[in-house]
Design a protein that fits this description.
Strand content: 5-15%
Distance between the termini: 24 Å
Largest sheet: 3 strands, antiparallel
Mean pLDDT: 88
Number of helices: 4
């Protein structure tokens, strides 16, 4: 049986991977992560929104895949930055490998 929850789980796994990939390049704050992913998705702001991003970052931090720290922002207020941990880098490699396998299966069997 197909339902929206299955699609949401796939998207959740993809978003985790995209966020970790952004942070693997450099430390970033929430809005910067949103902008980066939006540009990777050709400006599609519907895939990842602030209401999704911050709980996702909290979950990744709870799992030990990212760490946060405060840094002065351009307007004088501190910004919360995130950086990927060693465990996060290992997890990212694992997830990229999984997504490559999924892509190959889709290419072979579903996409014509």
């Amino acid at each position: 049986m197909v339902n929206a929850q299955n699609g949401a789980q796939v998207l959740k796994g993809l978003l985790d991977t995209l966020v970790l990939q952004v942070l693997d390049t450099k430390d970033n704050y929430g809005f910067g992560i949103l902008q980066n992913i939006s540009s990777q998705l050709d400006g599609d702001n519907m895939v990842l929104r602030e209401a999704t991003l911050y709980p996702l970052l909290h979950r990744l931090e709870t799992k030990g895949l990212v760490e946060s720290y405060w840094k002065p922002g351009q307007r004088g207020t501190d910004r919360k930055y995130y950086k990927i941990t060693k465990d996060g880098k290992n997890y990212l490699k694992y997830r990229i490998s999984d997504w490559k396998n999924v892509s190959n299966i889709l290419k072979k069997h579903l996409i014509t």
